[in-house]
Amino acid sequence: MKQLLKTWCAGISRLTGLGLDGAPHAIKEKLLEERDAVRRSLEPALLRFTWKLKPFAPKAPVRLQLACGSHALPGFINIDWRETNATDLLCDIRKLPFPEGSVTEIQCYHALEHFNRKEAECAVEHWASLLAPGGKLVLEVPDFAGLAKRYLKERDPQLLAYVFSSDRFVGDVHKWGYTSESLKVLLEDAGLVEVVTPPAQDYHTAFCPCLRVEGTKPDL
User: What is the pTM of this model?
Assistant: First the structure.
């Protein structure tokens, strides 16, 4: 799908003479955002359609990495709001185009804190609904309590960026903070079981205290 869309975009560029390489930065950013907006509408619709054509539907196991940024996970469909070199699918991760019970694993690193509390609850419930029985949800987020303790001790302004984010692009704002306990409750309230909080493993741990939580969809 990604290669097909790239070919399509390249064809449109040739037909229209629209080239971005020499465009001023602001214009280029605007055009890229418009392109991504089209993809966020088109790609999920195409994926939903393929699920209805069973011979063409993705084969199990379907594993998703949400908010992949520029870090792809091999064997996963890497999903993000913005185009990067790692993105397989552009869409809103709160409205994923997969049938309920069709996904065996979902991993999401440092995205949940970009939603407010209610949005996060709805997102986790949505992700849990997509899991097949025995499917696994893995989340990592900044450790709010750990960051607060370190900031009070070290007074390092960079730690505040990990609490509130750095506003690097549209939507790059943290709207909620988590402790190990509140993160565990979030998954349990979504109906997941065997919820555990092992040490964080993502690359973000090199920069700031982080939390990890894992939960399983119960068997029917």
Answer: 0.80
